[in-house]
Here is the input.
Amino acid sequence: MQLSLNEVQVESRKAARGAGLPWGLAEEVGYAMAWLAERGIDASAALLDILNARTHGDTAGDPLLAGISIADRAQKLAEGEVLAFAQIRQPVLVLPFMATAARLNGRTVLLRHEDALWSIRQGGEDPALLAAAAKRSRVIAVECRAEELPLRDTVEAKAAGRVDVEESLWLQLQALAHHTYVPASEQSRLLGAGAGNIDND
Here is the structure.
Protein backbone atom coordinates (compact mmCIF):
# COMPACT_ATOMS: atom_id res chain seq x y z
CA MET A 1 0.00 0.00 0.00
CA GLN A 2 1.35 3.42 -0.91
CA LEU A 3 0.62 6.73 0.78
CA SER A 4 1.87 10.26 0.31
CA LEU A 5 3.91 11.77 3.14
CA ASN A 6 1.00 14.11 3.80
CA GLU A 7 -1.38 11.15 4.15
CA VAL A 8 1.01 9.47 6.58
CA GLN A 9 1.17 12.63 8.69
CA VAL A 10 -2.57 13.34 8.68
CA GLU A 11 -3.73 9.76 9.31
CA SER A 12 -1.15 9.23 12.07
CA ARG A 13 -2.27 12.42 13.76
CA LYS A 14 -5.92 11.36 13.57
CA ALA A 15 -5.09 7.89 14.92
CA ALA A 16 -3.28 9.48 17.86
CA ARG A 17 -6.29 11.67 18.58
CA GLY A 18 -8.56 8.65 18.27
CA ALA A 19 -6.44 6.89 20.88
CA GLY A 20 -7.01 9.79 23.26
CA LEU A 21 -3.78 11.77 22.87
CA PRO A 22 -4.10 15.56 23.25
CA TRP A 23 -3.83 17.68 20.11
CA GLY A 24 -0.28 18.84 20.76
CA LEU A 25 1.04 15.31 21.20
CA ALA A 26 -0.96 14.08 18.22
CA GLU A 27 0.71 16.77 16.09
CA GLU A 28 4.10 15.45 17.21
CA VAL A 29 3.03 11.93 16.21
CA GLY A 30 2.17 13.13 12.72
CA TYR A 31 5.51 14.89 12.38
CA ALA A 32 7.47 11.86 13.62
CA MET A 33 5.71 9.39 11.33
CA ALA A 34 6.19 11.59 8.26
CA TRP A 35 9.88 12.12 9.14
CA LEU A 36 10.42 8.37 9.35
CA ALA A 37 8.42 7.62 6.20
CA GLU A 38 10.49 10.17 4.30
CA ARG A 39 13.52 8.07 5.20
CA GLY A 40 11.98 4.78 4.12
CA ILE A 41 10.82 3.56 7.53
CA ASP A 42 7.25 2.37 7.99
CA ALA A 43 6.78 2.83 11.74
CA SER A 44 3.09 1.94 11.78
CA ALA A 45 3.67 -1.20 13.89
CA ALA A 46 5.60 0.84 16.46
CA LEU A 47 2.92 3.53 16.57
CA LEU A 48 0.12 0.97 16.94
CA ASP A 49 1.95 -0.61 19.85
CA ILE A 50 2.26 2.73 21.62
CA LEU A 51 -1.31 3.84 20.92
CA ASN A 52 -2.78 0.49 22.00
CA ALA A 53 -0.75 0.66 25.21
CA ARG A 54 -2.00 4.18 25.87
CA THR A 55 -5.63 3.17 25.41
CA HIS A 56 -5.03 0.75 28.29
CA GLY A 57 -3.41 3.44 30.43
CA ASP A 58 0.15 2.16 29.90
CA THR A 59 2.57 5.03 29.28
CA ALA A 60 5.70 3.26 30.58
CA GLY A 61 8.66 3.97 28.33
CA ASP A 62 6.60 6.21 26.04
CA PRO A 63 8.95 7.25 23.18
CA LEU A 64 6.85 10.30 22.35
CA LEU A 65 7.29 11.81 25.80
CA ALA A 66 10.98 10.84 25.79
CA GLY A 67 11.44 12.36 22.34
CA ILE A 68 9.78 15.63 23.29
CA SER A 69 12.04 15.83 26.37
CA ILE A 70 15.08 15.38 24.13
CA ALA A 71 13.95 18.06 21.68
CA ASP A 72 12.96 20.48 24.44
CA ARG A 73 16.35 20.15 26.13
CA ALA A 74 18.44 20.45 22.96
CA GLN A 75 20.45 23.36 24.33
CA LYS A 76 21.01 21.67 27.67
CA LEU A 77 22.32 18.61 25.82
CA ALA A 78 24.76 20.84 23.95
CA GLU A 79 25.94 22.18 27.30
CA GLY A 80 26.75 18.67 28.50
CA GLU A 81 23.54 17.52 30.14
CA VAL A 82 22.80 13.80 29.87
CA LEU A 83 19.20 12.60 29.84
CA ALA A 84 18.64 9.14 31.32
CA PHE A 85 15.49 7.10 30.73
CA ALA A 86 14.59 3.94 32.64
CA GLN A 87 13.26 2.55 29.41
CA ILE A 88 12.11 3.61 25.97
CA ARG A 89 9.57 1.50 24.14
CA GLN A 90 9.67 1.48 20.33
CA PRO A 91 12.80 3.68 20.17
CA VAL A 92 12.42 4.23 16.43
CA LEU A 93 9.82 6.87 17.33
CA VAL A 94 12.47 8.85 19.23
CA LEU A 95 14.66 9.39 16.17
CA PRO A 96 12.73 12.36 14.68
CA PHE A 97 13.04 14.23 17.98
CA MET A 98 16.76 13.50 18.13
CA ALA A 99 16.98 15.06 14.68
CA THR A 100 15.14 18.14 15.94
CA ALA A 101 17.57 18.45 18.84
CA ALA A 102 20.55 18.07 16.49
CA ARG A 103 19.16 20.79 14.25
CA LEU A 104 18.59 23.13 17.19
CA ASN A 105 21.97 22.68 18.86
CA GLY A 106 24.17 21.95 15.84
CA ARG A 107 25.60 18.86 17.52
CA THR A 108 25.40 15.14 17.07
CA VAL A 109 22.76 13.69 19.39
CA LEU A 110 23.49 10.20 20.66
CA LEU A 111 21.21 7.57 22.15
CA ARG A 112 23.26 4.99 24.01
CA HIS A 113 22.11 1.58 25.22
CA GLU A 114 24.58 -1.06 26.37
CA ASP A 115 26.33 -2.16 23.16
CA ALA A 116 24.30 0.12 20.88
CA LEU A 117 25.19 3.72 20.09
CA TRP A 118 22.78 5.53 17.78
CA SER A 119 23.61 9.00 16.53
CA ILE A 120 21.90 11.67 14.49
CA ARG A 121 23.67 14.81 13.38
CA GLN A 122 22.40 17.96 11.76
CA GLY A 123 21.72 17.30 8.08
CA GLY A 124 21.76 13.52 8.01
CA GLU A 125 21.28 10.20 9.75
CA ASP A 126 23.46 7.15 10.12
CA PRO A 127 21.87 4.41 7.96
CA ALA A 128 22.92 1.73 10.44
CA LEU A 129 21.07 3.65 13.15
CA LEU A 130 17.85 3.72 11.19
CA ALA A 131 18.02 0.02 10.33
CA ALA A 132 18.82 -1.02 13.91
CA ALA A 133 16.25 1.21 15.59
CA ALA A 134 13.48 0.06 13.27
CA LYS A 135 13.98 -3.53 14.47
CA ARG A 136 13.88 -2.85 18.21
CA SER A 137 10.71 -2.73 20.25
CA ARG A 138 12.14 -1.92 23.67
CA VAL A 139 15.33 -0.37 24.98
CA ILE A 140 16.21 -0.27 28.66
CA ALA A 141 18.35 2.25 30.57
CA VAL A 142 18.96 4.75 27.81
CA GLU A 143 21.22 7.80 27.96
CA CYS A 144 20.91 10.67 25.53
CA ARG A 145 23.72 13.18 25.07
CA ALA A 146 25.09 15.60 22.48
CA GLU A 147 28.70 15.47 21.33
CA GLU A 148 30.93 16.73 18.59
CA LEU A 149 31.68 13.71 16.41
CA PRO A 150 33.44 13.23 13.07
CA LEU A 151 31.14 13.22 10.07
CA ARG A 152 29.81 9.80 9.16
CA ASP A 153 28.07 8.29 6.18
CA THR A 154 24.51 9.56 6.24
CA VAL A 155 21.25 8.91 4.50
CA GLU A 156 19.28 11.94 3.45
CA ALA A 157 15.54 12.24 3.16
CA LYS A 158 14.10 10.84 -0.02
CA ALA A 159 12.48 13.06 -2.60
CA ALA A 160 8.88 13.82 -1.74
CA GLY A 161 6.59 11.17 -3.16
CA ARG A 162 4.71 8.08 -2.11
CA VAL A 163 5.94 5.62 0.49
CA ASP A 164 5.20 1.94 1.08
CA VAL A 165 3.27 1.05 4.23
CA GLU A 166 1.84 -2.24 5.48
CA GLU A 167 -1.86 -2.15 4.61
CA SER A 168 -3.15 -4.26 7.54
CA LEU A 169 -1.43 -1.98 10.04
CA TRP A 170 -2.71 1.19 8.39
CA LEU A 171 -6.25 -0.15 8.46
CA GLN A 172 -5.87 -0.51 12.23
CA LEU A 173 -4.58 3.06 12.48
CA GLN A 174 -7.50 4.27 10.39
CA ALA A 175 -9.88 2.45 12.75
CA LEU A 176 -8.44 4.53 15.58
CA ALA A 177 -8.74 7.67 13.45
CA HIS A 178 -12.46 6.97 12.97
CA HIS A 179 -12.95 7.60 16.69
CA THR A 180 -12.42 11.30 15.94
CA TYR A 181 -15.29 11.49 13.46
CA VAL A 182 -18.62 12.91 14.58
CA PRO A 183 -21.59 10.68 13.73
CA ALA A 184 -24.00 12.15 11.22
CA SER A 185 -27.21 13.61 12.60
CA GLU A 186 -30.38 14.92 11.02
CA GLN A 187 -29.24 18.49 11.77
CA SER A 188 -25.77 17.96 10.24
CA ARG A 189 -27.35 16.52 7.09
CA LEU A 190 -29.64 19.52 6.81
CA LEU A 191 -26.58 21.77 7.11
CA GLY A 192 -24.92 20.04 4.20
CA ALA A 193 -22.94 17.13 5.66
CA GLY A 194 -22.84 14.07 3.44
CA ALA A 195 -25.52 13.84 0.80
CA GLY A 196 -28.10 15.70 2.88
CA ASN A 197 -31.73 14.68 2.39
CA ILE A 198 -31.56 14.60 -1.42
CA ASP A 199 -32.64 11.27 -2.84
CA ASN A 200 -31.49 10.82 -6.45
CA ASP A 201 -32.59 7.19 -6.69
Observations:
- The chain has nine helices and seven strands.
- The chain has a mean pLDDT of 79.
